[in-house]
Amino acid sequence: LAWDIWQLYYAGSAAGRVAPGDKSIVYGGVPRTAAGGEAAGTVRLLTNRGYVVGYSDALANPLWAAYRVQDLPRIPAPAERPEKFEVDRRTAARVAPEVYSGSGYDRGHLAPNFAIATRYGSAAQRETFLMSNITPQRHALNAGLWRELEMKVATSYPARYGEVWVIVGPVFGASPPRLRGGVAVPEVFFKIVIDEHEGRLRTLALLVPQGAPADAD
Q: What gap in Å lies between CA 131 and CA 60, rounded to an integer?
């Protein structure tokens, strides 16, 4: 019990300390919940080796994840994909991987395995398999358009711009359907890609619906 209380309320990785002006992972400061976002409840900030998450125990979902991808002379081969997902005990929701079994939804990453593994190493890669980084995604999206976009952000964009920052997350309806364990199912996903060039910003902002075809442009 003492360990759980420490993890939930006092540990640095759960307290979510991101210093103002720190652009090592998050660009422009930690995202804030907009007006009308009361359903999300308190947002728990979770800091990891290669990414930061804003987590909602009320929705049993990450509301956003932020990460930074730098260009490399040669992108290394990532370590072998971890065999299983893990409960994140820093959350109160404690979503288990089994909640998704038979639900019709994939365990969709917000901070992606490949980008984090190739820039931050195998320990950071394993942290992308924490359930606090996972949201329900239709398989056609997860394995199709979304994966293609993740790879462009991990390879093409850094090669062109030197480095990019990403903020990504789910968008929920007024009364979202729920999986077992209270996991809310998003209608849409957003992804914002940010490049800083000579003191100016260039951004790309996308809204991608759950029903996007696998071969969509």
A: 9
In DSSP terms, 166 is beta-bridged to 67, 193
Radius of gyration of the chain (CA): 17
Its pTM stands at: 0.89
Closest CA to 52 of 33, 24, 77: 24
By CB atoms closer than 10 A (0-12, 13-18, 19+), residue 217 is exposed
The 10s digit of each residue's pLDDT in 14-71 is: 455 677 788 999 998 899 877 667 788 889 999 999 999 999 999 999 999 999 999 9
The beta-strand segments (E) located in 75-180 are: 106-109, 134-137, 163-171
Tokens coding 34: 């907009």
